Amino acid sequence: MTEAAQVGLDVTAAAAALRERQRPIKTGYKQDPGSALITSIATAQVDQAGLTATVPTWAGDVAAGLHPAAGGDGSQACSADIVLQALVACAGVTLSSVATALGVRLRSATVTANGTWDARGTLGVDREAPVGLTGVELVFDVDTDADEDKVARLLELTERYCVVARTLQDPPPLTVRRA
Questions:
Q1: β-pairing, 77-78 with 60-65?
Q2: pTM beyond 0.85, yes or no
Q3: What is the C-alpha separation between 121 and 132, in angstroms, rounded?
Q4: Which end of the chain is less enclosed by CB atoms within 10 A, N or C?
């Protein structure tokens, strides 16, 4: 068997394994739609003296602090960067899953997010300046033998099923309250 045929077989086997792993989950959600509603929770411990908020994650604690454009020293994670990192992580996992389901072999793939924000809004310098990300660009660099139509479909489905991308495109209502 040629290497190309072996790789094709591997992608086909991976696609079958993914479908088999997800089949009972999808069946359960079809039978009980309420069981598909998942609550995700994140909590930060605030350190006023350090001007940080530490978020425990599965991969370890992440200390978020001020961006250098807002007076930070750059030694902590910036919250806008964390949003972009969540976006590329989600898009990357989704891309990989969709490629597997479609039988597309990725030799390599990189996902990059660029976000723009106006520090004047965050610092209260200009009350008319927006606070938060005002533009986000998601860029996929994909190396594959798949034809352009298949790659277009891959990216279309990745955008459709990426939780973070969809959340940014169609933001849910946000409620802010005191505990």
A1: parallel
A2: yes
A3: 8
A4: C
